[in-house]
Amino acid sequence: MAEEAILGYLEHNDEIKDSGEFAAERNIDHNEIVNVVKSLHGFRYVDAEDIKRETWVLTDEGKTYAAAGSPEVQLFSAIPEEEGIAKDELQKKVGATIFKIGCAQAAKNKWLDMGKPLISRKVKHVEDKVKDLLLQVQQGQSIGSGDIKALKARKLIVPQTWKGYSVKKGPNYAPKRKQVVTDLTRENFQSGEWKELEFKEYNYSAKGQPLEGGSLHPLLKVRSQLKQIFLCMGFEEMPTNNFVESSFWNFDALFQPQQHPARDSHDTFFLETPSTTKELPEDYVQRVKQVHESGGYESRGYKYDWKREEANKNLLRTHTTAVSSRMLYQLAQKPFSPKKYFSIDRVFRNEAVDRTHLAEFHQIEGLVCDRGLTLCDLIGVLHDFFSRLGMTKLKFKPAYNPYTEPSMEIFSYHEGFKKWVEVGNSGMFRPEMLQPMGLPEDVQVIAWGLSLERPTMILYGIDNIRDLFGHKVDLGLMKKNPICRLGIE
């Protein structure tokens, strides 16, 4: 109906000057007229120009007073003509809001005598000019600037921008819109209708919705950079695809006693199914049992009854050093050659979750296996490695690990915190761990490890690990943050 009205009118007239007046004259909703004009303009049936007018409309409060009268007149009408009325009774009669506003406006107009015992009228009759003005605004009539200012000050009216169009014939004008088709069908050919059809033009320059590429998680960005550092230093990556390990490779092969607190269920996730492993190298198992119980290689051992059933228990690996023990054992089965290994992968510990700890996190581990290595070699490699992370100020503190001796905690000076912070752990693998594997006596292994989460949090300014890893991570963190570039000095 709206489209027919517009095209039919333009067939005999040059212009629709105002779409609002046009809609009102034909009793058509103006929004319908606007939608049709936009569509016709898009197909160039008409040319449309915007029209904007500032109008005033009533607020909800203004609509109430336009219907029931202004508060001052409601208050005046509630006062008896002769004797007056008590303040409390009047307030109860008209309500607290009408009483408060009405008193202020009526006193301003000098309509009332606000005596202490009674409120009475000063004049006999009043006109409700506010209601009259509100009705004029509601009906679209113009009022004076002073009246507008007064109503606006009382928040009874607000400005509103009216939008419409002036409409003229376009280059493709026709009294009736032609129906364009998008598909040529078999029926069109059979009926011969295809000769009369008008097809919709294709817009070959139109672009589709942009496709977002995948975004790397901050942990993966830092991990990628660390991997490149290891590769640049000549390290070979160890396979870390076994999240499930046996207690033997995770603890026993590392010369960690079976009564160690870390092997308790409060600290380690043990599996129910399958609960044990059946694949362990028996000759190596016996050598590990011997060194735990009786010692060897200039060690006294732990002097306890080593139990095979404890070594067979399956668990979620608590550190990637379990991978290192497997790799060193495989290396010992061949003629010895020096190796440099590294790994970066997930480990699991049964810990309480807080802003700095999770039950799963990533461990970075590097090791060098060669003849004649000393503690000086370890310190030198650590300086080289951490300098590539931009950490040049290092300190080392003696520590204890079951499978390394000597052991050192690694500290770096944090320029932001203005203090020394622990960044990793390191040491030389003990002979009780290496020689049962079959490695030559003059072969030493230096190793170090650190978490992936801590440097990532520092680099990205994150103070809660749960904002970095887990279901609460903001996806915008991955899309907005640039790829991390670790400084090399």
Description of the structure:
The protein has helices spanning 2-12, 19-25, 30-42, 60-68, 71-77, 87-94, 96-108, 129-138, 145-153, 186-191, 218-232, 247-250, 282-293, 308-311, 321-332, 375-387, 431-434, 453-460, 475-480, and strands spanning 15-16, 46-58, 112-114, 119-121, 157-169, 180-181, 198-199, 236-237, 244-246, 314-316, 339-348, 360-371, 394-401, 404-414, 419-429, 443-451. With 489 residues, it is an alpha+beta fold. The strands form five sheets. The protein has a seven-stranded mixed sheet, with helices on both faces. A three-stranded antiparallel sheet has the order 1-5-2.
Beta-strand residue fraction? 15-25%
Terminus-to-terminus distance: 76 Å
Number of helices: 19
Strand order of the largest sheet: 8-11-12-16-15-14-13
Main β-sheet: number of strands, strand sense, barrel status?
7 strands, mixed
Q: Please compute the radius of gyration using only Cα atoms.
A: 43 Å
Q: What's the shape?
A: elongated
- Strand-pairing-aware structural class: alpha+beta
Low-confidence stretches: none
